[in-house]
Known about the structure:
Elements: H1 6-21, H2 27-42, H3 45-68, H4 73-111, H5 127-143, H6 152-159, H7 173-181, H8 188-221, H9 229-259, H10 277-283, H11 286-302, H12 304-317, H13 319-342, H14 346-365, H15 367-376, H16 384-405, H17 411-422, H18 442-465, H19 469-474, H20 478-495
Helix pairs in contact: 1-2, 2-6, 3-4, 3-5, 4-5, 6-7, 8-9, 8-18, 8-20, 9-16, 9-17, 11-13, 12-13, 13-14, 14-16
Amino acid sequence: MNITAFVFFVFIGIVxxxxxxxxxxxxxxxxxxxxxxxxSQANDLLMNGFWLLCAxxxxxxxxxxxxxxxTHPGRAKALAAVSVLIVIGFMIVLxxxxxxxxxxxxxxxLLGLQPAPxxxxxAPMGISYYxxxxxxxxxxxxxxxxxxxKNILKFLTFCGYFPIYTAGPIVRFQDVESNIxxxxxxxxxxxxxxxxxxxxGLMKKLILSERLAIVVNKVYEDSYAYPxxxxxxxxxxxxxxxxxxxxxxxxxxxxxxxxxxIELPENFSFPFLxxxxxxxxxxxxxTLGGWLRDYILYPILKSDGMQKLAGRCKKRYxxxxxxxxxxxxxxxxxxxxxxxxxxxxxxxxxxxxxxxGVIIITGEMLAPVFARLKNVLKINDKTFxxxxxxxxRTFLLFTVALSFFRAYDGxxxxxxxxxxxxxxxxxxxxxDGSLLRLGLDQKDxxxxxxxxxxxxxxxxxxxxxxxxxxxxxxxxxLVFRWxxxxxxxxxxxxxxxxxxxxxxxxxxxQKF
Length: 512
């Protein structure tokens, strides 16, 4: 069941109606039933069997860990490690086996040995998200920062909460337990705010992202026919395609939860206003970055090996470098894993993994050089112009990273696209009507400009006012509010992309 289909909204309507009809104490049961139905529609019987097996491993593992944490800490640590490895192992085997087999075949090819057959496992929907959620839950139970849920049905209600299975966010049990498991009273404002957010997400996905995808796909699928400036346009448009696709999906997910009174964490916070790559990634896919920071980076930095390395570096290179070198190593490991999480392909590992990590580390290494350069050139870094320069620089670096991310056929396609973009000079395509060959007519381009401007202005307005757009609109008079709501609703209905030429059901991050 895809979350842009009419049947999904009928399903949500039924769930919301039942949720508010039944007594508060039993409302979690409605969510459990909704989880079961949604998963039955999203996966086949075998994939749901894998899901249930991982859920049971997590439930039993957490119970055993909590039962042994005080009396047998060594046993609890081993149980937590084994449970986490099983959950993460299932994700890797089902989702990324071909990556390791490909490496093995490359080695055997050099040695003249017989290659192994390439595996092809169907992965359950949402496996990348719930694997991290469950692994984090096990770690928190082991650390004592999260109480183990003893009721297995309530545990399945939390761990199978259906809205997050499309593209996150990656939630933590202690943050959302009461929200999901405790019944909420109907709140008109919260319910209508949820509907508004769903509509906003549909606008991003169906009006903007689907149109941008036409141009991006056409260029990436044949960069020989569309070289030079076509490539640069496709690279830049893919940044906006991914943003409107991913954030649109998150808007729908958070809107559905808000209708039910359930608050989930935000996944975006004005990323295109970030002034550095590190700040950008604190504003983009926030919950993934937080998970990697708390469960990978910090444990690496606190490990005995890293502490010893820090001590040796401190003696040899000084206090500052003694702290920086282990941190940079931890960052590289974390960024490799971020890329690998997106998919077992080198284009992901390089694009949204190591490339971003290297940029962040290089920026930290060269920070003193940049500071001296600014003093020599008398550059005032507090001005609006300098902040704009920083934001443009960050955007271009992210565009480079995503150019490889979009090369779904692998790293070779990414380099091929870059080659075709750098070896042809054809700026005249910007003015001679050639862009109309990319699948969009002038009407579609006008729609992109119009609704893209609305999206940009609304984001800047929320950023400046430090308040959500919905709150700002809610302060206006009734007639004005309903004009805006109806305009957005009919815009989605009239200008949304549907039909056989569009795949509005497929969100980009859904495949991860």
